[in-house]
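Key result, reporting period 2: structure in, sequence out.
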């Protein structure tokens, strides 16, 4: 029997791999530094984790889905992204998903999330079926100047395009651009 953390860890790997395979990978450090001049910002990772957690929690509330149906057994975590010159920069990511909710409610939740984030000055990069075989409805938003990005993907079993036995879900990833970790100095 696998533990919830191990199951979620495997799910997180699948989600990240699918983002990369589907062409919706996490931005490279060189592309999104969050500051002008190509220099990554210097940030305290504890503050960044709090900010990502707050944004992610806010997005959960915007979906207006039952809290019992949200799976997020691992907290947002800092990881490292190489900056290309041998040093390592940090990034923070939070992954979670909503499951076991009627598809009509999930579809309405995606519309609410799209409208609310647009009204909150997030730049909507994409809100349409993605290019995967499943053609999942995908919302990509960013506050590039702040180094904040999010993807929400609604995999809808009603379409008949999901893998056999795959259930409908909304998966969400909130993450930052790469930054210099000030706690190391």
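The corresponding designed sequence is given below.
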């Amino acid at each position: 029997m696998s533990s919830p953390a191990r199951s979620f860890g495997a799910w997180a790997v699948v989600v990240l791999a699918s983002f990369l395979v589907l062409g919706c990978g996490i931005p490279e450090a060189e592309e999104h530094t969050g500051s002008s001049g190509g220099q990554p910002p210097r940030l305290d990772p504890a503050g960044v984790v709090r900010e990502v957690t707050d944004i992610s929690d806010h997005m959960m509330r915007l979906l207006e889905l039952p809290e019992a149906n949200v799976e997020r057994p691992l907290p947002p975590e800092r990881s490292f992204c190489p900056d290309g010159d041998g040093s390592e920069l940090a990034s923070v990511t939070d992954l979670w998903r909503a499951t076991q909710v009627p598809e009509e409610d999930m579809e309405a939740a995606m519309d609410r999330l799209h409208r609310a984030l647009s009204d909150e000055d997030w730049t909507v990069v994409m809100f349409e079926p993605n290019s995967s075989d499943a053609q999942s409805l995908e919302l990509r938003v960013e506050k590039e100047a702040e180094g904040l990005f999010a993807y929400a993907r609604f995999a809808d079993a009603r379409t008949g395009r999901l893998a056999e036995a795959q259930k409908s879900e909304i998966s969400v990833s909130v993450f930052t651009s790469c930054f210099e970790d000030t706690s190391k100095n």
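The two ends are 42 Å apart (CA to CA). Residues 1-36 have pLDDT under 50 and may be disordered. This case is discussed further under Risks and Mitigation.
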